[in-house]
Amino acid sequence: MHTGIIVFYLPEKGYGYLRLLNTREEFHFREKNLLSAGIKAGDIVRFEMKESRQGYFADKVERSNLA
């Protein structure tokens, strides 16, 4: 599992982006990839990276217990 921070999330559109902690690498995710409800910009999350035809994306995104 990787740790990152939500850059932005648009629930009305069903997608968002997160950034790996301490890096500039960003990955997209879709609402169907969320395991935790109420995710918002600035939340620290844990996630798995998966590869698709378009590149890597974040899967199994859940809020982390890190403060």
From TrEMBL:
Q: What is this protein called?
A: Uncharacterized protein
The scientific name of the source species is: Neolewinella aurantiaca
Superkingdom to which the source organism belongs: Bacteria
In terms of Gene3D superfamilies, this protein maps to: Nucleic acid-binding proteins (2.40.50.140)
